[in-house]
């Protein structure tokens, strides 16, 4: 093998989605340390700077490359990204927080091998994160009936993937090349022909991102819009009709048979590497509250105002198509509309009134203990102050200082993750969002991208992306209103 061939074999920038897709390449993170110690040759002495010369640097770099080849032999080509550092190392701009460069990372034998294993796990975690995002967005792209809705779905997916890549790489070095790689992988997973991918992405970015510079919201939005329109343009016809919504428990609107992070109809994927097994101390509500505080809701979406509506109410149409409970939910929507016409803040009393109608029960009080969702994979612990804190969150949904899309998205997630009721929380979240929009005379004429996506409590990018999605759906409704 020539030096050039040897390098290409362990160059992370040359990896394809087929190389890294976790569904194709099983990996046991628990055994990562054993694997590294089994394949790595003896660790060389730590390099030392003598003046401007790194003594022992070449030997350490050669050892690192040998380890990379050995991990590729054992685990597959995906493993070569273990040393792709996020900062200003020898191969900067990557997503790995761990290994830096041989001058800092090669220390004692035990510490060095431990760091290699941790970096390998971190790299695999990044790939699993991306696979989760792809699983979230691909069904949206495959379900849209109209080119307008398909453009919106692509815009949201691209914007979130760019945000995720920029954050993970800390926008260091040539981070935007990593962004191009992630988008290429996504287009691959979406079935875009190979001969078009590079041109589509390069034309969309076209100098809008810079090395060492965090991308602005305007730049991300512009790239997402350009790429979405370029992709949809030649492929806007021949789309299958949207599947009939089903009755899955989270969210209410997930159609049966679609790929889902909650079901078994996807290839097995590894558990995210830093996610502990659910135990007594796990509290996904706390994870959501941390995300809620971190997101800058003032810039997550733009300001919009009503009235915005066409002859179609997409959420009402969705409710009418439900195979079970549609009548009760339709009555509750009427209650929400009347309350929105009256105005005023969103309160738990109002939400509970609608929930009594939805469930057909005489009372719908705040839960008195821990709650579970996603078949037990998320849990929301209970504390005495939860009702009061939830009431505060509901009141913020009508604070006009924040953009309407941000408030609507945030209250949707508040209801989902506070999980205030014993049953029907996804429906309650939909009604809360509907109220916040209807209160300002906004009624969406397309809602599938909003209603079919699984939300995760600790997903900061997903939370901000939901606000942007609501903005895009409002904008699309306004365009059709004026057509």
Automatic annotation (TrEMBL):
What species was this sequence derived from? Micromonospora sonneratiae
Q: Extract the Pfam families matched here.
A: Fic
Query: What name goes with this protein?
Result: Fic family protein
Q: Do you know which SUPFAM superfamilies this protein is assigned to?
A: Fic-like
Q: Which residues form the Fido domain?
A: 346-475
Q: Write the lineage as a comma-separated list.
A: Bacteria, Bacillati, Actinomycetota, Actinomycetes, Micromonosporales
- Its domain of life reads Bacteria
């Amino acid at each position: 093998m020539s030096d050039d061939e040897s390098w290409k074999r362990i160059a992370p920038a040359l990896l394809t989605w087929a190389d890294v897709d976790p569904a194709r390449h099983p990996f046991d993170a628990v055994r990562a340390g054993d694997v590294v110690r089994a394949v790595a040759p003896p660790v060389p002495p730590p390099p030392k700077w003598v003046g401007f010369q790194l003594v022992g640097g070449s030997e350490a770099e050669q050892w690192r490359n040998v380890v990379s080849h050995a991990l590729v032999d054992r685990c597959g080509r995906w493993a070569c990204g273990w040393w792709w550092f996020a900062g200003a190392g020898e191969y900067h701009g990557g997503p790995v927080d761990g290994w830096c460069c041989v001058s800092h990372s090669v220390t004692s034998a035990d510490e060095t091998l431990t760091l290699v294993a941790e970096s390998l796990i971190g790299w695999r975690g990044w790939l699993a994160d991306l696979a989760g995002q792809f699983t979230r967005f691909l069904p949206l792209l495959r379900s849209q009936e109209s080119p307008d809705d398909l453009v919106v779905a692509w815009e949201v997916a691209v914007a979130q993937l760019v945000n995720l890549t920029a954050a993970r790489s800390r926008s260091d070095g040539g981070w935007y090349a990593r962004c191009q790689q992630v988008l290429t992988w996504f287009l691959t997973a979406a079935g875009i022909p190979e001969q078009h991918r590079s041109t589509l992405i390069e034309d969309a970015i076209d100098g809008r991102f810079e090395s060492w510079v965090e991308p602005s919201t305007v730049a991300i939005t512009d790239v997402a819009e350009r790429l979405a329109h370029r992709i949809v343009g030649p492929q806007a016809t021949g789309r299958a009709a949207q599947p009939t919504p089903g009755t899955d428990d989270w969210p209410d609107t997930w159609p049966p048979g679609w790929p889902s992070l909650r079901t078994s109809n996807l290839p097995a994927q590894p558990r995210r590497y830093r996610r502990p097994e659910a135990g007594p101390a796990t509290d996904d509500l706390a994870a959501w509250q941390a995300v809620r505080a971190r997101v800058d809701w003032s810039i997550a979406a733009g300001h919009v105002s009503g009235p915005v509506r066409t002859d179609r109410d997409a959420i009402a149409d969705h409710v009418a198509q439900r195979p079970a409970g549609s009548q009760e939910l339709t009555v509750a929507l009427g209650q929400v509309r009347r309350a929105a016409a009256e105005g005023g803040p969103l309160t738990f009393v109002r939400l509970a009134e609608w929930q009594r109608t939805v469930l057909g029960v005489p009372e719908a009080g705040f839960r008195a203990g821990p709650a579970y969702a996603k078949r037990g994979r998320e849990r929301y612990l209970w504390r005495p102050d939860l009702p009061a804190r939830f009431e505060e969150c509901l009141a913020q949904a009508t604070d006009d200082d924040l953009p309407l899309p941000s408030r609507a998205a945030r209250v949707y997630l508040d209801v989902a993750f506070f999980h205030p009721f014993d049953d029907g929380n996804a429906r309650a979240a939909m009604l809360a969002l509907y109220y916040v929009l209807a209160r300002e005379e906004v009624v969406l004429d397309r809602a599938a991208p909003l209603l079919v996506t699984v939300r995760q409590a600790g997903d900061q990018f997903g939370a901000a992306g939901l606000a942007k999605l609501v903005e895009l759906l409002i904008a699309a409704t306004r365009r059709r209103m004026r057509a």
